[in-house]
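Please predict the structure of the following assembly.
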Amino acid sequence: MLTIKNLHAEVDGKEILKGIDLEIRKGEVHAIMGPNGSGKSSLASVLAGRENYTVTQGEVNFDGKDLLELSPEDRAREGMFLAFQYPVEIPGVSNINFLKTALNEIRAYKGLPAMEAKEFLKLTKEKQQLVEFNANLMNRSLNEGFSGGEKKRNEILQLAMLDPKLGILDETDSGLDIDALRIVAGGVNKLRGPEKSFLVITHYQRLLDYIVPDFVHVLYNGRIVKTGTKELALELEEKGYDWLKEAEVHV
Amino acid sequence: MRNSNEIIDDIANKEYEYGFTTDIEMDIAPAGLDEDVIRFISAKKEEPEWLLEWRLKGYQAFKKMQLPKWQHFDMPEMDFQKVSYYAAPKKKKQLNSLDEVDPELLATFEKLGIPLNEQKALSGVAVDAVFDSVSVATTFKGKLKEMGVIFCSFGEAVREHPDLVKKYLGSVVPHSDNIFAALNAAVFSDGSFVYIPKGVRCPMELSTYFRINAQNTGQFERTLIIADDSSYVSYLEGCTAPMRDENQLHAAVVELVALDHAEIKYSTVQNWYPGDKDGKGGIYNFVTKRGICKGNSSKISWTQVETGSAITWKYPSVILQGDDAMGEFYSVAVTRNKQIADTGTKIYHLGRNTRSRIISKGISAGQGENTYRGLVQVGPRAHNARNFTQCDSLLIGNRCGAHTFPYIESRNKSATVEHEATTSKIGEDQIFYLNQRGIDTEKAVALIVNGYAKEVLNQLPMEFAVEAQKLLSITLEGSVG
């Protein structure tokens, strides 16, 4: 599904990813943990194709395609979805209009006709319930005046609607109280399946109590310094990240 | 991936869609302006003596006036002697029906998407088409006449309804109001005239479509709309011009009169040729628009979508004379390349309990300059007057400018005047977010801009709101910085 080999990237001339190797197979859930500034969110940005990141070395293969050659919109259309840490607000553009536009752009890329209004409404209703999204927010401007929890839930709703092959959750748990966290994680769990993979980026182990990963990777200073199963997350919770600094010396 | 500069270049090079010319035999007055030219125009139009005198008064005022200096741009030099003040498609005899209009002219309007053929016309819209200086066709006249609605060219109104014209001409915008209004009074060619009788709700949208075609001419049309007691009318104007290297002057005057309980809704979708990417050519759009809510509980609402012209200089205003009268101004102005827009409104609260609402949305891209200039004046008698102004600017790229000059003068303590202003940039974050959902950059900009302008676009009549949305998207295609 996603194969990252020796990925180096910089922003403003500063190297921020220093050789990442990662393989995510169909249906797998991988978690990336690490201290602040370790490059977690940068990895998400580079994968999604944010303009100010420059890839200097390495390759990324996404379901048979050279990901780095694709524009951000084509990456999305190929089935890569990034749930943003800070979703933007777009005044005057209703949530539903935005979702319809996005859905139909992706369908057009795949050679499918625009979705019929009736079918679209049915799909929206179904997915809304899945992620417990307040129907009143559908006609409001995209994320405008949404609470932090509503914004994050909206990200998961979009994920559900657009049905990607790979969902990247960039610190989706940040700023969520425990109830909101449970709902968001519950939504993701319902979307899990043999055809869908997830890359869950988080600072805290807490989220992984709800979304149980197949693999946990620890990112430190632009490199993956440790890979394990969900027990690694618990170990990190207990020990913190400081021991990594010592570990890094030996890598 | 394309970078921002490439995208900006794209938009700059995007050609103006309506830039063709029509080859047609014209009656053109020689360039220059003096009393003889004014007499020539008046004679050509077989006008009564009183109108000629009014024109000459306008000319006398014009001669004494200077170009204004307060606008937020360098006023280009204008040689009023180089312009021809009369150009009309040659016609051999009086036209009795649309079938007799020159097919070349009909084809031109067809090409612009303005079908003058009544069977094909947009349902519920009557159109008056003005080509260069002359009204060439008005649709649905008969149907409107049944209800007592007069909708015709200005020239025809002078002939058929002289009392109405005499009573209201210059009553809102006097012949000496400003230099461009004075010039218009002296040389105005044609335009549209509307009268809605007492108690009549005009059954269809009325629309005028202006087209400048001839070279070295200006266009000086005049529109006069009178809504009698308890009547209602919705009126729309649209305009285009060919691409030419020289600048052409458009100095129109619009006067609206709303009597007791009457309502006039006036919408403009302005798409004159804006000049090329280096700012060469384009229309100088210096227009005076003003309405008076003469009667109690009357209402005038201006909505404008301004995407064209090299320079736009216009401030559609409302005088709220009657008690409980209401004035509104909704505006979207877009500038790109080297376009300049200095636009806004003036609202004069004179009557008691008068209310006004101003929503202005400026969008600047490329090296465009966008200025909002507004005046809200509350007179001593205007007890409980209320105004709300919201004035937003959206910047695309980093070479454009947005400026706001709001003036508030209140002489009544019971008045409430509110002003809100914001400036924002289309953020890379917003674009990236939409990209990440599979929406390309062009569509993303269109989505953001239309969302931003929604409050104003919602004011347009249905058929035109869709057109305006498309126009905004096309105008700003690729303008991301």
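Chain A touches chain B through 29 residues (CB under 8 Å). DSSP finds nine helices and twelve strands in chain A.
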